[in-house]
Amino acid sequence: MSGALDGIERLLQAELRPGDRVAVEDPGWPRIGDLVTAIACGPSRSRSTRTVPSLTGWRRPCEQARAPSLSRRAGQNPTGAVIDPQRAAQIQAVLAAYPQVLAIEDDYIADIAGAPYAAVHGRSDRWAVVRSVSKVLGPDLRLATLAADPLTVSRIAGRQLLGPGWVSHLLQQTAATIFSDAATRGLLARAEHRYATRRAALVAALAERGIGSHGRSGLGVWIPVEEEAAINHAPSRYVLITYHRLFVWGSQQSYAEIFNSKPRL
Ligand SMILES: Cc1ncc(COP(=O)(O)O)c(C=O)c1O
After folding, report:
1. Is 185 helix (H, G, I), strand (E, B) or coil?
2. Which atom of ligand 1 is nearest to the CA of 130?
3. What is the largest CA-CA distance in the chain?
4. Ligand 1 site residues, Cβ closer than 6 angstroms
5. With 114 labelled, which of 40, 108, 126, 190 sits at a CA distance of 20 to 30 A?
């Protein structure tokens, strides 16, 4: 696919019929909500807690949705929540009860997530995992892999043939060559470690000052704040700070998200 979002869009386009509902995480990456809205399906929003999504948070939208819950191994954007193997097994059990739901796993952060992958599919017939190379090799490659159940793959491949046909083999070969180089594995391991160290240091420094934050994995740290305006005065030379409103649909609580800048390796 030409990136994770392209994969998700193709999955939604292939799966949805008018009036279908899509469950997306809340808080979550705003472009996915925007994409769902653009495809003209009213999002039925699944709330995720700031550690891992609750099971009720998964069950309710599954009852309403024909398509997907959107999830990830770790590095949930924006909260940094992790789906560990135990939680993944619980979610698998929930999804198994809803065979109409195509569960889409958005593993956008892949090898530098800071936690191992635990699949939420395995007990359901309809599933798809999109894994982007944007964060690990570079966003300009516009490349992601998509694995899915046979019905989903045939729908996606058939539709793709009618449009672009395929994703450039030149790009695919470039990514495959970089990934198969032993030096790449070392660099990615160092990047993952560096992001984790910096994330933990920021969370600890904030805690020392009495400020609670969330940053179990991923590239960002999620901080509840009293006033978003306060963030305007925060030093931002080395980090990118964004506001909660972009990421949250349901909650009244204000948040700031601080993104790790690119670590020097
Ligand atoms: C949750 C999430 N999914 C997908 C993406 C983008 O992936 P891609 O560049 O492969 O479309 C991002 C980028 O930050 C993201 O945060």
Report:
1. helix
2. 10
3. 57
4. 3-5, 29, 77, 106, 108, 132, 134, 139, 144
5. 126
Q: Is 259 exposed, middle or buried (0-12, 13-18, 19+ CB in 10 A)?
A: middle
The ligand 1 atom nearest the CA atom of 76? 1
Closest Cα to atom 12 of ligand 1? 108
Q: Atom of ligand 1 at shortest distance to CA of 132?
A: 10
What are the tens digits of pLDDT across the range 88-145?
Answer: 898 899 889 888 889 899 999 888 999 888 888 888 899 999 999 999 999 999 999 9
Ligand 1 binding pocket mutation candidate from 24, 31, 83 (most atoms within 8 A of CB): 31
Ligand 1 centroid to residue 150 C-alpha, Å: 24
| Each residue's pLDDT tens digit, 41-68 | 556 656 544 444 556 666 766 776 666 6
- Say if residues 69 and 58 touch (Cβ distance below 8 Å): yes
**Mapping DSSP to helix (H, G, I), strand (E, B) and coil, where does residue 106 land?**
strand
Q: Which of 129, 26, 130, 136 is nearest to 81 (CA)?
A: 26
pTM of the model: 0.87
**Within 39-181, where are the H helices?**
55-64, 85-96, 150-162, 169-180
